[in-house]
Predict the 3D structure of the following.
Amino acid sequence: MKAKRYVARSSEIAARRLGNEMMIMSGRDSTLFSLNEAATVIWEAADGLTTLDEIVEHRICQEFDVEQAEALRDAEALAEALAEHGIVQLADQPFQYSPSGKEQK
Amino acid sequence: MSALMQEMNAKALRLGIPLSVQLDLTYRCNERCVHCYLDHDDHGEMTTPEIRSLLKQLAEAGVFFLTMSGGEILLRKDFFDILEYARALLFCVKLKTNAILIRERQADRIRSLGVDSIQISIYSHRPEIHDAITKVPGSLRRSVDAIRFLRAQGLRVIIANVLMLQNMDDYPGVKALAADLGVEFTIDPTITPKMDGDRSILSLNINQASLRQVFRDEALVGDVEEFCAPPKQADEDDLDALPCSAGHSACYVSPYGDVYPCVQFPLPSGNVRRTPFLDIWRHSHQLHEVRSIRTRDLPSCSRCVHVVGCTRCPGLAYMEGNMRGPSSQDCEKSFAKTGIPSHNLLSRKPRGGALVHIQSAKELMTRPAISTTPAQ
């Protein structure tokens, strides 16, 4: 069984909602991303304290017509792609937050 | 511009979202550049709480790109507080500065706050030219030192080289300096009128011959033949196009809270001290008027051969007296690129005069793109 993954939004980015999408620019390499509606839901729910499984089960599967296993596969691929550009951080433990708002594993 | 960025711009336009805002934090400055369009006295800048409130409103309105400029932004004692707050609101922040107050400590702070880019004005690689333009002895050395500090932090720096009579011959040196420092280089051959309408500084603009030289410098423009190609014939879509993003997906806010379509388009459209930003953005009569204009509504420009490729600035046209009129400085640029005078220039200059020889409209459209006649 796969370990539960926690996903946290990075503060090293620029981001803004544009209609039902999210524009995100990586602070690491200035790459611009546009997240679709479902990806935006995942990104907004990525508080570092909720697992990806929970986000998929309680948000994605409630709001979109999709099988949970398929949604989880897509969500994991998304989270890993965003993590490569420093847009989110992934961990096997919940994130702890410093007073400055910066994530600490 | 990337395809994704174009898509985002188009979406912002459809949704009426101000994707980009330039916020001038102050008009005060520690340089006194000969070509500057600003009055440097402080007439009542927004306070820190006022700016924080504005930034929150801008974030809620959907602003993604936030350019902080001035005046010299680092003259505000609360500059880093403002920057920190802006980054907490997840703006993509770009800074424009002369950088002479940036040392290692400030560069480190700018990096830690995740600024996207820093644009720094450099007028010449020669101190005697740069410092004469800024009227601050030692300013070139200090700005270049600052660029090194910022680069040492891995930050993206862009040298902006404004061309005028005083430094016309120095842009290759500035470009080489940028390469040596490992930073980007951009050139702007336009001196704009002062915001109060005073046009005296336009006399500093480089002349037509120098413009032609700049536009034919392969190192600057890439493929000269393509850059200076004859104008394309306009179709219906071209005539339905928006003249510029000013007021459509971009706007400007002054240190006093005045909202304009653009820093170069000083049409007073509201003040955030009296009216919430989003109300101004959505309901200002002035912004509605700007948004109503399509290229076909421009009496002179819609009939001009350059209508498709022209860089016409509606703000400069406004400062010439008519936001639907031509922007003569852009007419000069189109002429310098192609050797073909604009409708506006033709209506002003005597036919058969020394500047251009016109034989027929058809010949004008088919003649070679680049005139090699030496400058007079």
Observations:
- The mean pLDDT of chain A is 87.
- Chain A is about 35% helix and 30% strand.
